[in-house]
Amino acid sequence: MSKAKKVSKSKLWFLVHSWLALPLWLFVFFVCVTGTIATVSQEIVWLANPAVRANAPSANAEMLGYDAILKVVEREHPGAVVQSISRPVKSQFALTVRVGYPDATSASLYVNPYTGHIQGSSSGFNFQQFVRALHGWLLIPFTNGFSLGWYIVAFLGVPMLASLVTGLVVYKRFWRGFMNPRLRLGQGARIFWGDFHRLAGIWSIPFIAIISITSIWFLIQAALSDNQISFSTAGVPPVVAREDIPRVTAGAPPPMISLDRAAQIAQQTFPDLEASFVRLPANAYGHIGVGGRGAYPLLFENLSINPYTGAVEHTRRVSDRSGLEMVTESMRPLHTGDFAGTWLKLVYCLFGLLLSMMVFSGMMIWTKRTFKETVAATRRRAPAVAGKQAPAAMARATAGGRHE
Question: What confidence score (pLDDT) does residue 363 get?
Fold first, then answer.
């Protein structure tokens, strides 16, 4: 076999290998697009569903307290057990009241925080949950641990980080792209997509670093959890002492402090805490849980308040966490951008679109180059086949002439 023939076959196998990488490109693009949508999925629901909006009746309207909301739910949904009341980070969203019913079903009620009107409910898998599950674990169910889809998606952080590092090495003096951006139009698709790919990569350096590093951490966290390795310092969940539980007649509810009083106690205990949710006791030994973001916006801080005496019996602040816990719990809000309001979500969405288009541009560059090489290899192979057939045809013709 000649050397040229070996080279031709090697080139052919390389092209087959290149085309087989197309599904991987498409998968990465899919994960980037779904992640971008998931970032603003709550805002998309707000646009599509009026029930989740918090429309104030007037410019100077004040929000109702937790007790007023609780009374409205108990009046309009008799028999329902209120489990929690949460206020979203964005003030334009309605309160979410989680309730359970005697038939073991549950639902989330959307309550206007200014009027107390129950505007709607959700009891199933809504759009926000669907998009986040599709992006985060490909809707592959969790069984005896983390979903296989979680591992697949999280592993993409490894090549993403490697691509970022190698791209910075290959693109010499990349910082010039910040001062002198170049995007050539009218010089062909390959030049345009090449310029766009480099420009998008330069402007997305911090975002790509955040997304890839947090994804790798999610991968490590899943592996540790599935192997029963934990570094939590939370300890055993607290319970109310038996002697603090008041005696009541059968069927009568025990006297408890109000939810507004619990929120007030939390505010007095930690003045920098912005309480965003209250969690009602699940049983007679449960505490009223109050939590929200403090001075460090990436993490939630919680207080467990005795529902009968009002005593703060357990707290979980940022300072109570180890350094490793702070890193771990900071990963999710850093990955999603859901900790500083709508403006940050929009910034994440913008860079998510830029990252998606960068992957698309890379795919376009790769496809065009591979396509051209495939056409060239096919054309080189065609004359070679024709060259083999020509001597055979001449030999047959010569043999035929001798026979005659």
Answer: 81
